[in-house]
Design brief:
There is one protein chain. The protein is an alpha+beta fold. It folds into two domains: 28-148 and 210-279, Four Helix Bundle (Hemerythrin (Met), subunit A) (Up-down Bundle); 153-204, no CATH class. The chain is built from eight helices and eight strands. It has helices at 2-13, 30-57, 66-69, 83-107, 111-142, 210-242, 245-249, 254-279, and strands at 152-154, 159-161, 174-175, 180-182, 185-186, 189-190, 194-197, 202-204. Strands 3-2-7-8 form a four-stranded antiparallel beta sheet, with no helix packed on it. The protein has a two-stranded antiparallel sheet with strand order 1-4. Strand 5 (185-186) and strand 6 form a beta hairpin. Helix 6 (210-242) packs antiparallel against helix 8. The N and C termini lie far apart (69 Å).
Length: 280
């Protein structure tokens, strides 16, 4: 008993309290710690999706070539491989930079700076969503790609076309294994062109692997949902910051820092999605 009393007395004399309880782990508040737990679980989810994509990608004999699939750009008639998605990526990365600035201004208790930089972040997120909507519209309406049908593929053998669709392919055009192709739809029907292999066998082009369209729309859509959710939360927190709610708390705008963690995570996930879908 005497020893216990001496320990308690020593703690109080060092400025502590006998009733203060446990300290914050890793010097992080409860809210930030919970955000880290959520981001960790979400990272496992995205990892599972991307691993599934990679497994199917390398188990298929033919797979769409990204340079061929993602080669459109608004206002341009010629091919522009991966230019549009590069612009999308740049916009999202810059929105992460503006989010950093918002957090920095929050640590300085600068309300106007927080609101300004969060507004730029919201604009960046909205621009990214607009770009993704245009990309999806182009693939669905113009290229007729859906979750169940994929017109993109690659040749697995050398050959010569025996007929054409009058727009992109003519009879007599030759191709080699590994080249990309796009099957077009006319009056609701796929124009599966006839071709002759080097051995003289006559065949018809088949649609590309169905899994590509399903995985593309699901994974990019899942990420887009995260971006949309982030934009909504950013707007709410920005309005709260402008009203002076966080200024009264004098905690360095911790709520802004928490939504910043989420936004950086969304940006980081897009880097991996960009790598897997658009570069491999």
């Amino acid at each position: 008993m005497a020893t216990d009393a001496a320990v308690v007395h020593q703690d109080i004399s060092n400025g502590g309290s006998a009733w203060e309880g446990g300290k914050e782990p890793f010097k992080a508040s409860y809210g930030k710690l919970m955000m880290w737990y959520f981001l960790l679980s979400d990272a496992f989810t995205f990892s599972g999706f991307l691993i599934a994509y990679g497994t199917l990608r390398f188990s298929m004999p033919t797979w769409p070539v990204p340079d061929f699939v993602f080669s459109t750009f608004p206002g341009m008639s010629g091919p522009a491989p991966l230019i549009f998605v590069t612009v999308m990526t740049f916009i999202l990365i810059m929105s992460s930079v503006t989010m950093v600035r918002a957090v920095q201004e929050g640590h300085r208790e600068n309300k106007q700076g927080v609101v300004k930089w969060m507004l730029f972040t919201v604009i960046g997120g909205a621009m990214f969503l607009g770009c993704q909507a245009w990309e999806w519209t182009t693939l669905i309406v113009k290229e007729h790609m859906t979750v169940t049908e994929n017109p993109f593929g690659t040749h697995t053998e050398n050959g010569t076309y025996l007929e054409g669709d009058g727009h992109y392919i003519e009879a007599g055009d030759t191709f080699v294994a590994g080249e990309s192709y796009l099957i077009h739809k006319h009056d609701g029907e796929w124009a599966k062109l006839k071709y002759q292999t080097e051995s003289g066998e006559v065949k018809r082009q088949e649609l590309g692997p169905r899994a590509f369209g399903a995985l593309f729309f699901f994974i990019t859509g899942f990420h887009g949902f995260h971006v949309l959710s982030g934009v909504v939360f950013l707007l709410i927190i920005m309005i709260n910051a402008a009203s002076g709610l966080y200024e009264k708390r004098k905690n360095g705008y911790e709520m802004v820092e928490k939504i910043g963690l989420y936004w950086h995570f969304v940006d980081l996930v897009w880097v991996f999605v960009f790598l897997v879908f658009y570069l491999l």
